[in-house]
Amino acid sequence: xxxxxxxxxxxxxxxxxxxxxxxxxxxxxxxxxxxxxxxxxxxxxxxxxxxxxxxxxxxxxxxxxxxxxxxxxxxxxxxxxxxxxxxxxxxxxxxxxxxxxxxxxxx
Amino acid sequence: xxxxxxxxxxxxxxxxxxxxxxxxxxxxxxxxxxxxxxxxxxxxxxxxxxxxxxxxxxxxxxxxxxxxxxxxxxxxxxxxxxxxxxxxxxxxxxxxxxxxxxxxxxxxxxxxxxxxxxxxxx
Lengths: 107, 122
What we know:
The structure holds two protein chains of two kinds.
Chain A (H helix, E strand, L loop, with lengths): L8 E4 L5 E6 L9 E5 L6 E4 L13 E6 L2 E6 L8 E8 L5 E3 L3 E5 L1
Parallel strand pairs in A: 1-9
Antiparallel strand pairs in A: 2-6, 3-4, 3-7, 5-6, 7-8, 7-9
Chain B lengths: L2 E5 L3 E2 L5 E8 L8 E8 L6 E7 L4 E3 L7 E6 L4 E6 L8 E11 L2 E7 L3 E5 L2
């Protein structure tokens, strides 16, 4: 399957750890990147490649992959982390695919 | 640093062709691992990849849009173009251009333009 599946919504208490997942067959073969999108703004990358953070992204963001599931973990979630998160990878034909997105609520 | 800016009409009629421009400033795409990609997002929905083009003009389009999409570029003015024909209301969305770094199975989009909202309606 070329699809990437994400849970529609996840919540976390302020200061706690949350993991957002992205499932798909192609995750076994391609790196997954993660994007944060706040209302009215363009997406911003938070993780790419083998757990790399772009400049300016806090260390509390990390990524990992196990089998067909990629995960984005926020350790010590902050109020400003409340946003939509999208994963991105490729399908077997090399086409870019995005997950459906996960809405993160920080309680 | 590299900045991207989309421009074009905000309202297009059904069956017509959408033409958008992405102007790149503050840097270049000389690294052959860089592409310019178009991505769209209907209001309240997820991201959809439209396609990508490299500085040599090589293109790759989403299978679902391939029959209606054309991407091109003018490197003398650092402008990239998107044309989407036979528009319907389903093409109403925010359209983003973004630089895509792609190498060895590693892809990531950075930076993104601010987006341009396009409505398809009579």
